[in-house]
Specification:
The protein has about 240 residues and is of the alpha/beta class. About 25% of the residues lie in helices and about 25% in strands.
Length: about 240
């Protein structure tokens, strides 16, 4: 893999590349993938678009995170389980000053969590919901997971950030899906977007990397801070240039 920005280079150290301007301050980083014609999935799954380079970036971004966050739809479709890192990756995280364990947080307003049962192994995930969710469902989930109530009618993503940070989880990696990314961007909660553009064309039908209700006001401005290339796939690193 080679870097085109910020400095041309070959044989990029992905941990150093994505750790720069991230490890010290943290924030909310979104990681998404799209085809060359803008599709967020192929055959209904993001893995249908993945390349070896995207898999390497995906792993590096997880290695640099305190917590992985996904919407319940993504957790269901992609069969999320407890993240079990190899001994080598746990050692890499320790060298970077991170916990060897990587918890998963799932966002669900309804708490209809028909996800893979393996997600609830080892103490379960963090469930992020709102006060509008069913109180009995929250109480039942609290017996096998950590439940965070963030917001009243809908999930407040800035409150989610605050509550995760209070648990020492300041480097938040959001893996989607498109509706969650759209809401995060609309609420000005995202600090960085890592977007893989893979050399495939899927044709009509698939959704984009953002979904949900149309935004009011101006588009969110982004600043390109890094660009990698491998085997015709591009890996873009954007920071948010301003607020909505």
């Amino acid at each position: 893999m080679r870097a085109l920005l910020p400095v041309p280079a070959t044989d990029v150290d992905l941990h150093a590349y994505y750790g720069a301007d991230w490890l010290e301050g943290g924030g909310i980083r979104a990681n998404m993938i799209a085809s060359a014609d803008g599709a967020a999935s192929a055959g209904g799954l993001s893995r249908g678009l993945q390349t070896p380079g995207d898999n390497a970036v995906f792993a590096a971004l997880r290695d640099l995170a305190d917590v992985v966050v996904a919407g319940v739809g993504t957790a269901r479709a992609e069969q999320y389980r407890v993240v079990r890192l190899s001994a080598a990756r746990r050692a890499d995280r320790a060298d970077l000053g991170l916990s060897p364990d990587l918890p998963t947080a799932v966002i669900s307003r309804s708490l209809r969590l028909d996800v893979h049962p393996g997600l609830f192994d080892d103490g379960g995930p963090i469930i992020v919901t709102s006060a509008a969710s069913d109180a009995d469902a929250r109480a039942e989930l609290a017996t096998r997971a950590t439940v965070l109530v963030c917001g009243d009618d809908d999930v407040d993503f800035n409150e989610m950030r605050r509550q995760l940070a209070a648990r020492g989880l300041t480097r938040v990696l959001c893996e989607g899906g498109p509706t969650i990314l759209g809401a995060l961007l609309a609420s000005a909660a995202v600090d960085e977007l890592c977007l893989s553009i893979t050399p495939f064309v899927t044709g009509p039908g698939a959704g984009r990397v953002v979904a949900g209700a149309p935004w009011a006001g101006a588009p969110v401005a982004m600043r390109l801070t890094g660009l990698l290339e491998e085997d015709a796939a591009l890996f873009l690193r954007y920071t948010v240039a301003g607020e909505r």
